[in-house]
Amino acid sequence: xxxxxxxxxxxCLLFAVGCRGPETGVNEAxxxxxxxxxxxxxxxxxxxxxVLKEFERTHPKIKLRVLFTPNDLSNNQKFFTSVAAxxxxxxxxxxxxxxxxxxxxxxxxxxxxxxxxxxxxxxxxFGPCWKQNVYKGSVWSMxxxxxxxxxxxxxxxxxxxxx
Length: 163
Description:
With 163 residues, this protein is an alpha/beta fold. It has 7 helices and 6 strands, in the order αββαβαβαααββα.
């Protein structure tokens, strides 16, 4: 799973290099600087930092400018403000249920040509996760994990009475 997370982050970040936004530039060392906003704070910070450092290690021509930015279904003001100011991050982690809304608002760039160039196909993903990437026939995000936030519980009495 660790390797998959690194590969997924690499794919997202490499797409971003191709989708350079206003914040992308080149530093004094000649590295392409890619701005990445992530929502993992607290005890999860160390994990995402390891993934991002591994990306930089394996892609020495790219320097990541990383910023912790809370991003959930109710807290998107910073992102939308940056889009309105024409200074969005090159990469942002978007929760699956947000993809269609953000794409509809014009806040995301289609990844169709990058997905095609990379040979990424729907059958390489868990179906429900892939479906969250697509809106109006275009790919807007790249899923890298599934988050089953539910419990499986049943009542034997209810099941028996239902047949």
